Amino acid sequence: MKKYDQYSNCRIIGSSIKSAGEILKPLLKNEQELLDAIGSIKSEAELKAWYPMDTILALMELAEKNDFVERMAKSGALNVVRLMRQKGQVHTPEQALKTIEMGFKYQHQGNVGQLSVEIESPTAATVVDSTYGPCGYLSGMIELTIANYGAVNISMTHFSNNCRQHGAPACKYSYSWEESSLLKLRMSEED
Ligand SMILES: [Zn+2]
User: Fold this and answer.
1) Exposed, middle or buried by CB within 10 Å (0-12, 13-18, 19+), for 88?
2) Which residues of the chain have pLDDT under 50?
3) How far apart are CA 42 and CA 32, in angstroms?
């Protein structure tokens, strides 16, 4: 798989391959090689082990070809929110954004590109994505995740001159949102 050469020194954690595989199940019926690779990740140790990138890259390609990017983003966001709830240290959209950035780092080894989040204010952030995932994947996941942490009226700006699909080295997204009054109430109860 020559086109994947650029990631030959990179690794991804087993659980990430596993969850992408689960979302893309409907597309995998005739993809025995991918099914085998995903199926081999089962035990707790395997979920935490490091794997070459070819399986996840093939899954991303499949998602992009079949208009599954939005669905991937949705279920990626659900996973992120579930993990954050377990850890219990995230309460606001900005904390959620920082956790996504960190989480991406922990799930990979080597230069898989960068996901960087700059918090501009409590209700605005800029995200730069030069990772292997297609445009719309991480950005969609981010949007849905912050919505789960009380961001409402989210607006996302993504200009084509800042998009990898139009030849830019990275996709740059600007988000702004409002805090829901519900969130403010919850926060004040916790204080
Ligand atoms: Zn883009």
Assistant:
1) exposed
2) none
3) 17
The Cα angle at residue 95 between residues 180 and 117, in degrees rounded to 5: 110
Give the pLDDT score at 189.
Answer: 59
| Predicted pLDDT at 130 | 95
Kindly give the distance from the C-alpha atom of residue 189 to the centroid of ligand 1, in angstroms, as a whole number.
39
Question: What is the per-residue pLDDT for 82?
Answer: 87
- For the entire predicted model, the pTM comes to 0.86
Partnered with residue 178 across adjacent β-strands are 152
Find the 111 Cα to ligand 1 centroid distance in Å: 19
Domains defined for the chain, CATH in brackets: 2-65 (no CATH), 69-190 (3.90.1520.10)
**Residue 175: strand pairing partners:** 125, 156
